[in-house]
Amino acid sequence: MQNQLEMLRIFKTVAESANFKEASVRLGISPQSVTRAIKELEERVGEPLFYRSTRNTTITEFGKQMALKSEGVIEQVDALFQLNQHTHAPKAIEGSVKITMPSTFGRQYLLPALTAFAKEYPNIQLDLRFSDLIDNVVADQMDIGVRIGFFSNNRNVARRVNEIKFHIVGAPALIEKTGIPNQVNDLCGMPYTGLIDQNTGRMWPWSFANEPDCFPSAPAFISDDIEAELAAVLAGVGYGQLPDAICKKYIQNGQLVSVLADQAPAPWGIYVYRPQRGPVAERVRVVFDYLAKTLSEIKFG
């Protein structure tokens, strides 16, 4: 039988993700455990909390009220248990923390925050590994990982802290040459850029909101580095499907134009994760929470 606090924690995660499976990934437990906890909580409160179908999970009106009233309860209880930990001065926490993160994203968004952290906690040695490969944090002896995309490894404890939206973009000169694509089919025959997935060696297919994944045509430019792809798109080589984390400033200054906004793919989650193994060292917990907070506060759009 689940304790009430743990059931609330699971309920809160399902409410945030609107998906039982994704909630189980974020919590590092099985989907069956999530289902059991929600069922038991519904029996205790005497009301359904979610409408569930094979495709969708929708919170009920009662569930919304419960989520609103439980806001902050879990955090307050966690804070009580961590009172003793937080009475220690930063210098009392020491040791090495090994972190893996995507190359471009890590340098642009995490490196400044982590250098500031290193100054605040001089006795914690940060060992940063920049790679676009999906690391096995257990086999590679990593303490913490940051990943963008879809997370399905239930051997890790993962927290979804933010999301990145995608844009279909082209340089003004290219749009002048090809005309503005008004529907997905218009992209067929137009030059576009492709990104190689370093984990599989295959090119990422383009995704659309209301159309199946596809490759619009033969790519005019392919790379396994997203900065190289961005450079090609900026140069007018072809259209690109790029995350706003790297292309938003170019849209804002007019170097790129966003097209087919209603067909942009679903956002990708940003996750902070760690191995699911025994007690968590204080230094790892501090860095993990710092990364989660830092990433949750970034406004990409």
Describe it for me?
This protein has 301 residues and is α/β, with parallel strands linked by helices. The chain folds into three domains: 4-81, Winged helix-like DNA-binding domain superfamily/Winged helix DNA-binding domain (Arc Repressor Mutant, subunit A, Orthogonal Bundle), CATH 1.10.10; 88-160 and 268-296, D-Maltodextrin-Binding Protein, domain 2; 166-263, D-Maltodextrin-Binding Protein, domain 2 (3-Layer(aba) Sandwich), CATH 3.40.190.10. It is 39% helix and 20% strand. The protein has eleven helices and twelve strands. It has helices at residues 4-17, 20-27, 31-45, 61-69, 73-81, 83-86, 103-120, 172-178, 226-234, 244-252, 282-296, and strands at 50-52, 57-59, 95-101, 124-130, 144-149, 156-164, 166-170, 193-195, 221-223, 240-243, 257-259, 268-275. The strands form four sheets. It has a five-stranded mixed beta sheet. Strand 3, helix 7 (103-120) and strand 4 form a beta-alpha-beta unit. Helix 1 (4-17) packs across helix 2. The chain starts with a helix and ends in a 5-residue tail after the last helix. 28% of the residues are buried. The model has no long low-confidence stretch (mean pLDDT 85).
Low-confidence stretches: none
Main-sheet strand order equals 4-3-5-12-6
- What Rg is obtained from the alpha carbons, in whole angstroms? 22 Å
H/E element order: HHHEEHHHEHEEEEHEEHEHEEH
Family: Belongs to the LysR transcriptional regulatory family.
GO molecular function, one term: sequence-specific DNA binding
Organism: Methylotenera mobilis
Domain HTH lysR-type: 1-60
